[in-house]
Amino acid sequence: MAETMQSLDGATSQNFPRTGQHYSPLVDGTKYGRVYAHAVQTILSDPETLYSRWKDVESFPLWQEHVVSCTPVSDKVSHWVIGNPQDPRGKRIEFDAQITDDEPGRRIAWDSITEGVEQSGAVTFTPHPSGRGTIVLLQQMVKLPGGALTNALFSIAERGPRQTVIESLRHFKEMAEAGEIPSIKGQPHGPRGVSGTTKKWMYGETNPKPRGASESASDIRQVQ
Amino acid sequence: MGRGSIEVHHVEDPKIINPHDAILKITRTAICGSDLHLYDGYIPTMESGDIVGHEFMGIVEEVGSEVKKLKRGDRVVVPFTISCGSCMFCRKDLWSLCDNSNPNARIAEAMYGYSGSALFGYSHIYGGYAGGQAQYVRVPFADVGPIKIENDLPDEKVLFLSDIYPTGYQGAENCNIEPGDTVAIWGCGPVGLFAIASAYLLGAGKVIAIDRFPERLKLAREYCGATTIDYSEEDVTIVEALRDLTGGVGPDSCIDAVGMEAHSSTIAGLYDKVKQTLMLETDRPFVLRQAIQAIRKGGTLSIPGVYGGVLDKVNFGAAFGKGIHMNMGQTHMQKYLQPLLKYVEQGKIDPSFLISHRVGIEQVPDMYKIWRDKQDSCTKIVIDPWVDKMENPKIAAR
């Protein structure tokens, strides 16, 4: 990518032959009893700012789906509580995750250190080659099935782990760019009737969406 | 409340949800032609209890903590698209393609690959935001959308900045008009009428307008200055009429201001109606087919009419064979609000020219039916949500 940029001033790589790249897909889907998921977004911000936002683990419940709380235990270890923040009596999964790789402004990787919970992930921040901000790639792996965490994710998030990863990164972008997560939660509506009620989940009205910067009293109660 | 049913209900007042929200007390609102696609059940993910309406203006009642430009008491017109103002698309002036305003982006991604901006009161695929055929509405990203009205022009002269005037204008701008060009416009509803006026403003030499309702054709001819064709008249064939009116060349640009529910009395029209009813195709692209056929070689086809899904039997070979250009999409509202407000202030155009009915909120369900069935010479309906019933909805004929 850096070569492409250089070609704007130097003539060398405007001549042919020039070497391109070949696409190979990232691991995604269910493999070896584990769910691999990834999401990618271009965010109008610089890698350093986004990296520090991601290091602020206590803010995770504001934008990551199904995270009730995340508390730093030490420099590298944080304690996660996963569940539906809207349902205080709902199922909770707790585990500790340790940072396994930390390159400021570039990459963070983590892995669960709690026995029985297999959950790992990595996020990379790459400057967009044409200056359109930062390409953020989030990759996550959770163990299937019967794995307590996966089941909890399925039942809580009402979407598969793959979509959960996509939504979490989307919310990260929304917070970084727009300063809030768009929401219609709590807005008035007329009588829903039978079909409206059954389809509520489809439109996200029953999803435990993180509250972002919401000022709505009901949203703030959910998180506590 | 389901296909073909609009009802008036008392619901809770909207509240501030996010820090960039404002709550508006609505002073005037309107029914849009595109609301009829919702009414007729052709836009997926509408649900019982959804509040519709995306053309409205009013007075700011309350603002969220991050709203900087608006304050209580400001008089504003609100564009129908919701945009964050900070993503790549908003910064490129592609406001209706905003990345960050649709809470249901995943539904749109499943259907379209990527999600555009959210819209007010226009189904859950477009965000599910409650609309403005109401007394109060919540406006997200209040510093980005609403335009302050600091003159004393009456509501009715500025209300249509919320959608149909900018949408008609973009429809014309998307034609890449060169001075003296001939532009043909299908549909003389509000968007079509504003497109005619805008095409002249942008330098068109001749505008040809196609419809079948006398009251619309009259406005097109007598207010906007178009040459009109009534496609329902005997012996009228649109492609031939346009060839005759353009010296055998075809219109330089065509505008489809009709969209997915085009009407036609021909066999092809019946074919689309049957397929759409059986849900074998979502849209009836009759106008699109005709425009592709009629346009001159290398011409530009602009589509402000709404399409929702999968089309059938569109002669893409003709589009390719003639090397035409196509421009379409929801309106990038914020790009047009200031310049078009200026036109209104300068008196270049009085957008209220097309209003035919003024009603109170209790009359809205009836007006949907009248508007859909094109009864009562209806060309545009404006609603005062604080009045239950207006005595004489129909204003004096011009």
Structural overview:
The complex is a heterodimer of chains A (224) and B (398). Chain A is of the alpha+beta class and 224 residues long. Chain A has a single domain, classed as START domain (Alpha-D-Glucose-1,6-Bisphosphate, Chain A, domain 4, 2-Layer Sandwich), CATH 3.30.530.20. Chain A is built from seven helices and eight strands; from the N terminus they run H-E-E-H-H-E-E-E-E-E-E-H-H-H-H. Chain A has helices at 2-6, 47-55, 60-63, 148-157, 161-178, 193-198, 217-223; strands spanning 29-31, 34-43, 67-72, 77-83, 92-103, 107-112, 119-127, 134-143. Chain A has an eight-stranded antiparallel beta sheet. Chain B has 398 residues and is of the alpha/beta class.
In short:
The complex is a heterodimer of chains A (224) and B (398). Chain A contains 7 helices and 8 strands.
Q: Quick one: biggest sheet of chain B? A: 7 strands, mixed
Unreliable runs of chain A: 1-7
H-E order of chain B:
EHEEEHHEEEHHEHEHEHEHHEHEHEHE
CATH class of chain A: Alpha Beta
In the CATH hierarchy, what is the architecture of chain A at level 2? 2-Layer Sandwich
What's the number of helices of chain B?
Answer: 13
Structural category of chain B is alpha/beta
- The total of beta strands of chain B comes to 15
By CATH, the topology of chain A is Alpha-D-Glucose-1,6-Bisphosphate, Chain A, domain 4
Task: Give the DSSP E fraction of chain A (strand runs of 2 or more residues).
Answer: 25-35%
Radius of gyration computed on alpha carbons of chain A: 20 Å
Strand order of the largest sheet of chain A: 1-2-8-7-6-5-4-3
Strand-residue fraction of chain B? 15-25%
Q: What does the overall shape of chain B look like?
A: globular
Main interface by residue count? A-B, 41 and 48 residues
Content-based structural category of chain A: alpha+beta
Mean of the pLDDT scores of chain A?
A: 84
Quaternary organisation:
heterodimer
Q: How do the SSEs of chain A run, as a string of H and E?
A: HEEHHEEEEEEHHHH
